[in-house]
């Protein structure tokens, strides 16, 4: 996504999560910050299924703004 925003798949407390998070740098290493969201597989599946609707809403918004 960018140097300080990343999407990672990780395991936390025995659960696989998709995390979209801001990272910060300390002593030359990157660490996950507090800003972000972690989704379970089920939550990620629901989110991914809604992406076409989100894309459509963005297209409609752009169309209205360019008129």
From TrEMBL:
Q: Which GO terms describe its cellular component?
A: nucleus
* InterPro entries tied to this protein: PC4_C, ssDNA-bd_transcriptional_reg, Sub1/Tcp4-like
Q: Which Gene3D superfamilies match?
A: Transcriptional Coactivator Pc4, Chain A
**SUPFAM superfamilies linked to this entry:** ssDNA-binding transcriptional regulator domain
Q: Which domain of life is it from?
A: Eukaryota
**Entry keywords, A to Z:** DNA-binding, Nucleus, Transcription, Transcription regulation
Instruction: Tell where it localizes.
Output: Nucleus
A single GO molecular function term of this UniProt record: DNA binding
Question: Does the entry feature the keyword Ion transport, yes or no?
Answer: no
Q: Which residues form the Transcriptional coactivator p15 (PC4) C-terminal domain?
A: 2-47
Please list the GO biological process terms of this entry. Answer: positive regulation of transcription initiation by RNA polymerase II
**Family statement:** Belongs to the transcriptional coactivator PC4 family.
Identification of the protein by name? Transcriptional coactivator p15 (PC4) C-terminal domain-containing protein
């Amino acid at each position: 996504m960018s140097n300080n925003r990343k999407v990672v798949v990780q395991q936390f407390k025995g659960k696989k999560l998709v995390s979209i998070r801001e990272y910060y740098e300390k002593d030359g290493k990157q660490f996950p910050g507090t800003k972000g969201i972690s989704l379970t597989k089920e939550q990620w599946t629901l989110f991914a299924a809604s992406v076409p609707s989100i894309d459509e809403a963005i297209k409609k918004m752009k169309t209205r703004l360019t008129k």
